[in-house]
Design a protein that fits this description.
Layout lengths: L5 H7 E5 L7 H10 L3 E5 L4 H6 L3 H10 L3 E7 L4 H9 L6 H9 L11 E6 L5 E6 L2 E6 L11 E5 L6 H15 L1 E2 L6
Parallel strand pairs: 2-3, 3-4
Antiparallel strand pairs: 1-7, 2-5, 4-8, 5-6, 6-7
């Protein structure tokens, strides 16, 4: 029996932001600080995370130290998918450099128990940042940066399917990604 209900899925939506840059820093920090079970991040470069929290690597290591599972999944900076995104956004070798720069914030997580960083090989058009039963989803608008794209804040609600839809998508992509050893060259 399917216990999913349209009204439950609508109830999952907490807020819509006109662009990711408008998501309040306090919301990101609250969600990160309150996470008790898991933090999952699926991004191309994810530079916005270090802008929200300049010590993001240390904060994530601290969360892992209290039992939070941390899974970070970035685009492979030398992969074909990144070259495709550069062409789609009319960029010249920019995204790969942005990813390499962003990854420098996470080198300290390599080998930290409870933390894993992977690089994915696919062109995706959504960023997903999950904190336990809440998720911020940014569907990227063609030709624009993620920060210029709308962001949706969802909370898992029994009978809803939006949160679970994005969580399952993260898991599928995570399974196709390769562990990162900390090399940004």
């Amino acid at each position: 029996m399917n216990d999913r209900r349209p009204e439950a899925s609508r109830a999952e939506l907490i807020e819509v932001f006109g662009d990711r840059a408008s998501v309040p820093r306090e919301l990101w920090l609250r969600l990160l600080g309150e996470a008790r079970e898991q933090v999952d991040v699926l991004v191309l470069a994810g530079a916005f995370l270090s802008q929200v929290q300049p010590r993001i690597g240390r904060v994530l290591a601290d969360r892992a130290g209290v039992g939070v599972q941390v899974r970070l999944c970035f685009a492979d900076p030398s992969g074909e998918a990144v070259a495709v995104r550069d062409r789609e956004n009319c960029l010249v070798v920019t995204l790969g450099a942005m990813i390499r720069s962003s990854l420098t914030h996470y080198r300290s997580l390599v080998g930290v128990e409870g933390c894993e960083v992977r690089l994915h090989p696919v062109t995706h058009h959504v960023s997903v940042v999950r904190f336990d039963d809440e998720v911020l989803v940014t569907p990227h608008v063609f030709g624009e940066s993620g920060n210029a794209s709308p962001t949706f804040h969802f909370r898992r609600v029994q009978g809803g399917n939006l949160f679970d839809h994005y969580a399952a998508g993260f898991d599928r992509l995570w399974d196709s990604a390769s562990p990162w050893a900390g090399d940004v060259g």
